[in-house]
Design brief:
The relative contact order is 0.13. The protein has a three-stranded mixed β-sheet with strand order 1-3-2, with no helix packed on it. It has about 180 residues and is mainly alpha-helical. Helix content is about 50%, strand content about 10%. The radius of gyration is 22 Å and the shape is flat.
Length: about 180
Amino acid sequence: MSFNVEDDNNDTEEESDFQKEEDVKYSKTALVMMALKKCLEANGKEMRSGYWNDRLDKNGNIAKTYIPDSKKELIESVENLQNFAVADIKKEQPKIAKLKEDLMKKYEQLCDEEEQDWENAHYKELQWRASMGYSPRKHYLSTFLPYYHEYMDEEVKTSREILKIINESLSSNPDYQGEGDAKG
């Protein structure tokens, strides 16, 4: 049995991989733009949870391939962009903090709902959950119940809102204006 991770973007074809180290200079603007590009690519994909896919290879062996979680890819790429652009989006930090605070409130609400679900579940349902290895954990969302997936959808929406705020902020910053972006 072999394990693979399916990766949609082939990073070995990047021009930067073939440059000499002395030719490469640190450019914060370039790093932010690369992070923004990754966000836009992740945002353009279908939002689906990650999963293992079993396929038969040409010899008849089962090959397990992991299909990445595109929701988590978007969330992490936006977080990465925030880290690179932190100095350029200082004015936007209160808006972003408010969005994250609202997301945390939603998480706490969903944790409470899941806790109620465990308390109100029929004993047969609890037996089945226990047989499958599921048990309740305080302030933690179980992936097999719908509350986790509802939270992930909210986190994707929040990440998209944050991406929108950062993009608007960077587009008005003269450091990120290209030749074709000149306003006149």
